[in-house]
Specification:
Layout (H helix, E strand, L loop, with lengths): L1 H45 L3 E6 L4 E4 L1 H7 L3 H5 L3 H4 L21 E8 L5 E12 L2 E8 L1 H23 L2 E7 L4 E4 L1 H7 L12 H4 L7 H13 L3 E9 L5 E11 L6 E8 L1 H23 L3 E6 L4 E4 L1 H7 L3 H4 L4 H4 L1 E4 L9 H8 L3 E2 L4 E4 L5 E12 L5 E10 L1 H15 L9 H14 L6 E7 L2 H8 L1 H16 L7 E6 L2 E6 L4 H16 L2 E4 L2 E4 L2 E7 L7 H17 L5 E3 L5 H22 L2 E10 L8 E9 L5 E2 L5 H6 L3 H15 L1 H5 L6 E4 L2 H5 L3 H11 L7 E6 H6 L1 H13 L3 E7 L16 E4 L1 H4 L6 H16 L3 E4 L7 H8 L3 E2 L8 E2 H8 L20
Parallel strand pairs: 23-24, 26-28, 28-29, 29-30, 30-31, 31-32, 32-33
Antiparallel strand pairs: 1-2, 1-5, 3-4, 4-5, 6-7, 6-10, 8-9, 9-10, 11-12, 11-17, 13-15, 14-16, 15-16, 16-17, 18-20, 18-23, 19-20, 21-22, 25-26, 25-33, 25-34, 26-27
Helix pairs in contact: 16-17, 19-20, 22-25
Amino acid sequence: MSLLLIGAAMISGVLLGLMGFSWLLKKRHGQRMAALEHRSRLLVEQAATGMAFLDSSGKWVHANPSFLSFLGIDRSRLKGRSLVSLVYPDDMPCLPDLSRFNIGGQPFVEELRFAGPEGSIRWARLTLSLIEPQLYLIQIDPIQATKDAEKALQENRRRLELAVTAGGVGIWQYHLGRDELLWDDKMYELYGVTPGGETEGTLAMWSDRVHPDDLPAANEALAKAIDEQGELDIGFRVFRPDGERCFIRAKAVYLPGDGDGMVLGTNWDITAEQAMQASLAREKEQLRVTLSSIADAVIATDHNGIITFMNPIAESLTGWREKEACGQHVDSVLVLSTEERRGPKISPVSVALNGGDVCFLREGSFLLSRDGSRYEIQDSAAPLKDNAGVVTGAVMVFRDVTTRRAMQKKLRYHATHDSLTGLTNRREFENILQLTLDEREKEQGMLCFIDLDRFKVVNDTAGHVAGDALLRECARVIARQIRDGDVLARLGGDEFGLLLRGCPADQAVQIAERLIQALDEMRFAWKDSLYDIGGSVGLVQLDENVATVEEAMSRADVACYAAKHRGRGQVSVYTPDDSEASRRHVELQMAAGLRESLEANRLLLFAQEIRPIANPDCPGHYEILLRLRDRNGDILNPGAFIPAAERYQMMPHIDRWVLTQLLVKLGEQLLAYPKLNLAINLSATSLDDPSFIPFLDELLAATPVPPQRLTFEITETTVVNQLSTASEVLSRLREQGCKVALDDFGSGFSSFNYLKHFPVDFIKIDGSFVRNLMFSSVDHTIVESINEVAHRLGVKTVAEYVEDDALIPVLQKAGVDYVQGYAIGRPQPLDYLLEQLSKPAQPDQPKNRAMASPRSS
């Protein structure tokens, strides 16, 4: 029993021991599993790959930091997101159905885009697998850098393809071991063949297209590149099947490899380049031929000034042959100097090379030839620059101007000197005078005008040849009386000008008196005659009161005029208080102003009515008068400028201006007033002008105004002094239908006799007889006599200067046909008259007494 108990106890102890050992084993296994799980968690947490666990319901069990970092979210935000929501929308359809996964089955692997923070997109490789029932492992390996590299590689490939396509480059490779030639599409295009031909893949595909003359050199170059395992660079011509010929450039390199290696290369079309090179070669040759044949010398240098080209003209002028000069510095071949300095002068080529600008030689530069000759040259040097603006050389063009400069000097002399006497001419004298006025000392300097007193006698009696000889002799006589530095000039005709520089007035008078004495002592012999000569001198001091050349010349002319009128052989010094000098000075200034006024169109047309009184039904007319607007805008009467115009031969210009304005510019406007008749004054100087009649005929033929509405007035004095000329002009006018009026009748040497030979339509009785008609029986008798004789000759009469209404009945009783004067109407602007005539007639309209004075005032 005890044994049983002992046995049982032993069995129980053994069982207890086994149970304890079993528990111990389980405990140790659990500890190992816990440690393994802990290590696994550490591995997951510290893994660089993003890892996460997802149950079958789509809930996140766990996600490591790499997973969260890749998505850019924290754990709290991950709980509310599904796997699908993490994937870029376009890639969502790529995700698998989780229910189809098996434990140990094939995992799902796909490259997908994930939505990162702030709208960013990130590429990753997604691995999805079922590791336990209802537990999925998700792994994310970032591949953004790989994708970026692939994208860059694709872009580079695309760019390369575009570059190759745009550049027209074809790529080929020749495998030596297989004897196989491979082309890309561009190669087929370059050679004009289609893939799949009989020679496809063989060298014949290439050699059949190469020009026979170029093929041997091409084959040799290819063989050399293969033998030496080097590079190939050749050009050759190709015939395409369509007959077109082109130039191909081939470059290749030998690449060693398995077997015998290969040659990899490119081809491209250089037809345009070859054509351009050929064109440049032709142009270069043409340029060389041109430069060799032009009349100018040309020298070209490099950037160091070393001569690279010289044409034949340059060879001739420098004395160097091109072969000798090329390689020499330009300064050793082109030896320059100035007229003043015989030493060497810097070449413009050096200046152009250093400064980069075009350089010109100054006038008076000379080239010293190698043979000792000396040429005056004119040149320019220009730098040659590349596309970057860097100077690469220079070109100098020059010509021999020795003969031309000599001619220019001669022409310049003739342009500034009088051809007859050799003295300075008027234009140059005025230029010198202007310089003197600009640089003068206020208290010194005198201007002289010298007028020969009896030159016209010699010129008219002995002829122009004698007159020319006299002028030359007088020039020599005057030149001997003046000082060094004084300027003597012939101003024209028998007038000389003398500029006395730095000369007080009293000394100038002494020089002038000595000069007159020398002229008085002259005895000019011509053939069998002996002539006495004299002179008059006018002086003006060039002080601060003389501002311009015109003013100085005008004052000297006035002083000379005064000297002649004091008895000739006199010296007159200009003084502003001399009344005769002042009057002549004013006339001179007015004459000069008239020219300017004509050019500036400052003359004004006025009109004064001539009204019928004997028969009111007869048509009246208007006399065209002139006014002048001066520079200040004031209106001047004829008396202020007509005398100057008559003295200085300006009246023909004024007459032509008036006729042109009326008959051409205002012709259409005057035509619109059929009852408007006009009286136009003609001067005596116009009647003396041979070109005036053709001018007037041309105007009358061109004007739309009928000639019957035109009356031309000339003065009685003009008729008496120029009877034949006036008769011819006015007869022509009457033949064309114009009327003629004799103005100021009775004021001069009037004679009724010449009226028989000089038919006129109107006689205008001078105002001197009309003014005092009511108080002078003599004037009354003269007016009646003129009127009676005129009517017997069939001529109508006009009374001028009718300034009182009381005169009109007296003139009517005397039988006068027309009246003109203030009592009828004052002169008014022609445009104002035309404006009034265009308005409807107003009954009892007052007489116009608005403006200006009558023509003779």
